[in-house]
Amino acid sequence: MLYKRFHPVLCPLLAMLLAIAAGCRQPSGPEVVVYTAVDRNVAEPILDRFQSHTGVRVRAVYDVEAAKTSGLVARLVAESPHPRCDVFWNNEPVQTLLLADRGLLEPYRPAAAVDLGGQFKDPAGRWTGVACRARVIVYNTKYLARQQAPRSILALTDPKWRGKVAVADPQFGTTRTHVAALFAVLGPDRAKQLLQDLLANDARIVDGNAMVKNLVARADPNASPVYLGLTDTDDVLSGQADGEPVDMIYPDQDSFGTLIVPSTVCLVRGGPNPEPARQLVDYLVGPEVEKELVTGRSGFFSLRAGGPAGTAAARLGLPKGMKVSHQALLEQLEPSSLWTKEHFRR
């Protein structure tokens, strides 16, 4: 009788308590936490397929364009006493090197990386390359013929391009890596002079490489046009796939070359899910993911001799890359970043 008297009250209360308990229950089955600076439209389908193939739940944290890579690296450093992330999939190498130098990465040598060249994997096994992109000069094909576009980043300082060149904020992403490489290859003094000349030529400093490409694609001669910029192969190829009037030049092919930028994948030391993490690294380094990155619209190149030929490689061939060691990049990262932080204002 007592149960019947209070049944209308107890039933909703019981339902609420059961719902709370269900919400607090830990997810069933294995999971892996990945932080990635690879563009979400590229990384998400790959991570979804890994989850579908393996049954391992993927919890992904993506960066934002304006703070490319740097925000995630800062988070990994802050969390290092109690890591929350298992796998870091970066869109460039130099800040991965920084994490390795701080002892925050767990050595692991995936079997699928056995045929990668030494420049694309860490001798100590702390990171592995996953396809690569290149730094390029993007230009608007509606207003510039190919022969009119500069063949060197040094030529972007020519007064005829005053106010017509865009560059992403050098505190972040592949632009930060590019500046560190210029400090290493040209020497700090010459690199600083180049950057000062760009600023003196009223180069636009914007939030990310995608915005560089967007400004070039939307150039309007009647509204302070930007006809040229420094960006990555993937940004240009995605613009072309969308029908935008952009094309690219590999700069400095008759001198010091352009920067080749491998994406990198690594295990976070002390991550909460080590076994699923190794599964994910194996998958990302393997041939299925490389083929998708290289043959899709992402603008990547294979790191393997005889690997699949992608869109950019098929049309332009592989570029001559800068000869710069990982150690030199790491050594120049902090001084170049401090200099650009002081001198670049938006």
Features:
346 residues, alpha/beta, D-Maltodextrin-Binding Protein, domain 2, 10-stranded mixed beta sheet, 16% strand, disordered N terminus
Tell me what the structure shows.
The structure is a single chain. The protein has two domains: 31-132 and 261-315, 3-Layer(aba) Sandwich (D-Maltodextrin-Binding Protein, domain 2); 133-259 and 330-343, Periplasmic binding protein-like II (D-Maltodextrin-Binding Protein, domain 2). Strand 1, helix 2 (40-54) and strand 2 form a beta-alpha-beta unit. Mean pLDDT is 89; it is low at 1-27. The protein has twelve helices and ten strands. Strands 1, 2, 3, 4, 5, 6, 7, 8, 9 and 10 form a ten-stranded mixed sheet that branches. The protein is an alpha/beta fold. The radius of gyration is 23 Å and the shape is globular. The termini are far apart. Helix 4 (94-101) crosses helix 12 (326-343), helix 5 (173-186) crosses helix 6 (188-200) and helix 5 (173-186) packs across helix 12 (326-343). 46% of the residues are buried. Helix content is 42%, strand content 16%.
